[in-house]
From TrEMBL:
The chain crosses the membrane at residues 20-39, 59-84, 104-134, 146-169, 181-204, 245-270, 290-310. It comes from the Bacteria. This is Sulfate transport system permease protein CysW. The keyword GTP-binding does not apply. It is a multi-pass membrane protein. Residues 336-347 have a biased composition (Polar residues). Residues 108-311 form the ABC transmembrane type-1 domain. Keywords: Cell inner membrane, Cell membrane, Membrane, Sulfate transport, Transmembrane, Transmembrane helix, Transport. GO terms for molecular function: ABC-type sulfate transporter activity. It is found in: Cell inner membrane. The gene is cysW.
């Protein structure tokens, strides 16, 4: 056992004092995973054919599952646990003090403000773009779809440099903005703009295939019955896309809070003013304040885990509603006329 400890100490210096914290976080993670599995697990089937998910031998399935679990444990769970372990390596007081530092509080506030501005704007744009692409046919539709995917193919650092080129002091609009006392680069507006650029495809790309699959029959029926455009959207379209919309907002919010490359270019790294949480982690780590850096990083990781839990719950609710809708038997013509008569008499 001592040789194993020496080997671990050689590979991961300073890791042994934090094993207790790692085990605690691991137990909590296992409990959360089991709870999510219990909530989202499909009902057991009574037929043998439905139980057979694959035709491969059982040992093949177990080997594949073991490889997948080892891969996830090595490249996902272990780094995540090491973040929490390093954050708590010097005690709870040091952890709280790192988060209560004025620069850390400023970074947390700026991250939340940026997300609160970028996500609603992307929500409006994403719904409008998805509605336009999924419900209408027009020239340039494929080009618009390509533009929506553009931030996925451009490096975030390049996106930040684009904003510097446009709004910087020596950029295209920089002299005019300076003469009017408006500062975008190295200020909060530049951070918000860069965040909007890298996050705006998430909601639109989540809604476009969903709207295309649903078609426009229900909207046409609502218009024929006299509904206005807003009534059709609020009472027909929005209920059909609400879970896809929630899923897109969750992904957009997660990327907005964790964005580094584009924000790093346009922020200027001004402590207490333009540093978001990812940038604050970099600054602390560069100043050899490892415990404080990992403390802020652990807060980002907690936000990511909360996002993952909310996303899992949203997916489960969407699946449950889809199953419930599929199990409802269609109404017979006699029942439809009877319901209409009851409605007429009530009116």
């Amino acid at each position: 056992m001592s040789k194993i400890h020496e080997a671990i100490q050689a590979l991961f210096p300073g890791m042994l004092p934090i094993w207790a914290h790692l085990y605690t976080v691991l137990i909590i993670a296992v409990v959360v995973v089991l709870a999510l599995y219990k909530i989202t697990a499909p009902p057991k089937s009574s037929t043998r054919l439905e139980k057979m998910s694959t035709t491969e031998p059982r040992w093949v399935r177990w080997v594949l599952i073991t490889i997948a679990l080892l891969f996830m444990g090595l490249f996902l769970i272990l780094p995540l646990l090491s973040v929490f372990g390093e954050a708590l390596s010097k005690g709870w007081d040091t952890y709280v003090a790192a988060l209560a530092e004025p620069d850390a509080i400023s970074a947390i506030k700026l991250t939340l403000i940026t997300a609160l501005i970028a996500v609603p704007l992307n929500l409006v744009f994403g719904v409008a773009a998805a509605w336009c692409i999924a419900k209408y046919e027009f020239k340039g539709k494929a080009f618009l779809t390509t533009l929506i995917d553009l931030p996925f193919s451009i490096s975030p650092v390049v996106a930040g440099l684009i904003y510097v080129l446009v709004f910087g002091a020596n950029g295209w609009l920089g002299p005019w903005l300076t003469s009017h006392g408006v500062q975008i680069i190295f200020a909060v507006p530049g951070i918000v703009l860069a965040t909007i650029f890298v996050t705006f495809p998430f909601i639109a790309r989540e809604l476009i295939p969903l709207m295309q699959a649903q078609g426009s029959d229900e909207e046409y029926a609502a218009v024929v019955l006299g509904a206005s455009g807003w009534q059709t959207f609020w009472h027909v379209t929005l209920p059909n896309i609400k879970w896809g919309l929630v899923y897109g907002v969750i992904l957009c919010n997660a990327r907005a809070m964790g964005e580094f490359g584009a924000v790093s270019v346009v922020s200027g790294h001004i402590r207490g003013q333009t540093n978001t949480m990812p940038l604050h982690v970099e600054v602390l780590y560069a100043d050899y304040q490892a415990a404080a850096a990992f403390a802020v990083a652990s807060l980002l990781a907690l936000l990511a885990l909360v996002t993952l839990v909310i996303k899992s719950i949203a997916e489960w609710r969407a699946e449950q509603q889809a199953k419930a809708a599929a199990e409802i038997p269609p109404e017979r013509p006699g029942q439809i006329s009877l319901n209409q008569n009851k409605t007429t008499k009530a009116a």
